[in-house]
Specification:
The protein is built from six helices and no strands. By secondary structure, the protein is mainly α. It is 82% helix and 0% strand. The protein has helices at 9-17, 21-48, 53-83, 87-108, 111-134, 140-146. The N and C termini lie close together (6 Å). It has one domain (21-133). The structure holds protoporphyrin IX containing FE.
Length: 148
């Protein structure tokens, strides 16, 4: 059993960053997805300031964000099947559902829904970014072994 000293410092950081190949793929996609979604309020702000190019960029951004969301879902399903970690997959499923509603709310101009849901999806994705980078993404059994 690890002592308290062994659980701190670089050894603990290394353990947190450990991931299987499918875990690394998920981390890369979640990171790209997070960067992409931060562009959305910026482009919306450019548009609302009177520059119509902002709406075009927001539309391109919406397609990129949505595509990355579906890629993230595929990667999270693989992590679930290979590593038996359902949590990230269920969280991604909720996020992708919210982004899909967000997309159609944007097209419909339903800003009463689009603006708060936009903030919520960004917060949700940031929490997922923190989750995939702050702990190991490994087979469930190995994780249990580590906690002994
Ligand atoms: C906090 C974040 C966001 C803000 C503040 C925001 C704001 C806006 C605004 C002001 C519009 C223009 C609506 C109109 O003129 O009627 C719009 C349109 C749109 N938004 Fe967002 N949005 C955000 C995030 C997102 C995200 C994450 C997506 C994609 C999943 C998205 C997809 C769209 C789409 C598809 C449109 C329609 C574009 C068009 O008509 O060409 N938005 N958004």
């Amino acid at each position: 059993m690890a002592t308290a000293a062994e659980r701190t410092g670089p050894a603990r950081t290394d353990a947190a960053h450990r991931a299987s190949p499918s875990g690394w793929v998920l981390r890369v996609i979640v990171s790209a997805h997070t960067v992409a979604i931060f562009g959305q309020p910026v482009f919306a702000g450019i548009y609302l300031s009177g520059d119509f190019d902002g709406l075009r960029w927001h539309e391109v951004g919406a397609n990129i964000v949505t595509a990355l969301g579906y890629l993230q879902l595929i990667a999270a399903v693989v992590v679930w099947l290979r590593l038996r970690q359902a949590r990230l997959c269920l969280a991604t499923l909720a996020l992708v559902a919210a982004e899909t509603v967000q997309y159609f709310a944007g097209i419909d101009g339903a800003l009463w829904l689009h603006l708060p849901l936009g903030v919520l999806t960004i917060v949700g994705l940031v929490l997922q970014f923190i989750a995939v980078w702050s702990g190991p993404i490994e087979p469930a059994t190995r994780e249990e072994d580590d906690s002994e």
